[in-house]
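Long-time lurker, finally posting.

We've been working with Thiamine-phosphate synthase (Dorea acetigenes) and I want a structural starting point before designing mutants. I don't trust myself to interpret raw outputs, so I'm hoping someone here can both generate the structure tokens and explain anything notable. Sequence follows.
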Amino acid sequence: MRCDKKDLLLYAVTDRSWLGGETLYSQVEKALKGGATFVQLREKELDEGRFLNEAREIKELCRKYQVPFVINDSVEIALAVDADGVHVGQSDMEAGDVRAKLGPDKIIGVSAQTVEQAVLAEKRGADYLGVGAVFPTDSKADAREVDHKILRAICEAVHIPVIAIGGISKENVMELAGSGVCGIAVISAIFAQKDIEAAAAQLRESTEKMVEV
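Top reply, 14 upvotes:
Generated this for you. Predicted structure of Thiamine-phosphate synthase:
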């Protein structure tokens, strides 16, 4: 298994929006100390040189905490820093092409909104699926909501782990109980909080309860 579903329990997706004078490195470290089990580096604005340096630093940090580290969208950056893998959306390179570039031992995550997309991603070599938005979200302007019935149907249709993403917070995470997901991916629920470490710890505890229900 390239990707154990236990690693996907609390999946932290980075965002520079809430740095407030801090470094992304220190924020990610707080999230890891709080119990994040997986880190995705998501950069939409950085130039390639800075993205590369940041990816190298955060990869080493995740290695120290023995947590998988993937890059959002950029197969090139993932290859350059020897990240654990890549997460791609529906409009990015499809999973089979990513697998051809990354090789057999890297993690590939794919975003999916429908059962058809999920089944196809699994067939093409995805290791896990990120499904959402499961609640309204401000983090992605183009995110459309996925009905919880569809979320459950996706979990039943595939054999690979599924995580829910989009608008998840400590207040609503329990609403996902019984859906079949093995974890959650969050951005603002960790990185927009005053105490990142405490926020991650609280979310991890709630998610463990939600998954067991």
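Before you design anything, note these points.
Helices lie at 24-34, 48-64, 75-81, 95-102, 115-123, 148-157, 188-191, 196-212.
DSSP finds eight helices and eight strands in the chain.
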